[in-house]
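Support reply, case 0932

Customer input (verbatim):
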Amino acid sequence: MRLHSISRLSLMAIVVCTLFSCNEKEEFATEKLSDYIPLNTGKYITYRIDSTVYTAFGTITEVHSFQVKHVIDALITDNNGRPAYRVYRYLRDTAGLQSWQPSGSYYITPLPDQVEVTEDNLRFIKLHLPIRNGFSWKGNKFLPNDPYGPAGYSFSNDNFMEFWDFTYDNFSPSFSYRGNNYSNVYSVAQADEKDLVDTFRVSATNQVQIPANKIAGWIAGNSTGLITVNADAPSNGFEMRIYNSSNNSLKLNGITTPSGYSRNYRYNNGQWGLGNNGKDTLYTDTPPGFKNYALEKYAKNTGLVYKQYELWEYQPNIGNPSGAYKIGFGITMWMIDHN
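Our regenerated output:
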């Protein structure tokens, strides 16, 4: 009996150890970083870029399109004394009819557990082990506060970027964008933050229609008289702020907001009433907005194939809606060729 009991205990120990070994292998199994950022001298990737810029003191939005080629030039030593690959950039027109023109460089530092990219003295951790859905890391941990300030961007979007979580958000066997197809793609979600106020313009009949569940509305345009606002019914207790930048007063369910002011409305018992617990309060503040969105996609055995990067801040002008302006930039780029 005693020997039999010992044998049973030994067998159980073997089974437990085997199970834990399997779990550990599953836990630490990962693809290689070099699968998703191949680094070989002479390798190149060509991208199409749509670059969003705000001109005329931020009052005009323009999109400039072109091609950019990234070419791995040579193995060098980075600022921290580590082996790194220097990458040269070249630009040409969207149609690819002009010759390539040099446009700066950056370097990529591969490490055992992460890949760093340093550009304009800003260091990012682009990929990190293990490569699996849901894994996160602080990809901007080396950035200073206000990293884009020296480049002339006087916005608050880049404050605390060092705390952004980079996350393997999704693995797709295939991904397509504008007729370009990519295989075995990991998405790296970096930021998706926004505080945007929807703009609603006054119609020719001096009316404004606001869809349900809008927490704020910016009313713009000119009218020939009092503006009637119709807002679709949200859930009971829902509160909405309306900013009136039109040329006349507006009215929602008999409650008037003069031009140049804002007011909170609350939906109760099937109708709109005063917000702020029923207090009749007018405000003169204006609704700023911002957007931070960053997403990259890496294809196996290819590298970066798609990137969307938007950082901008919106500053309205309540007395002159056409004087509202944006500070920031936006980039959408996707691979069109590689070797």
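We compared this against your earlier run and they match. Two observations from our side: The chain is about 10% helix and 50% strand. The chain has two domains: 33-193+291-338, 198-278. Please reopen the case if you see a mismatch on your end.
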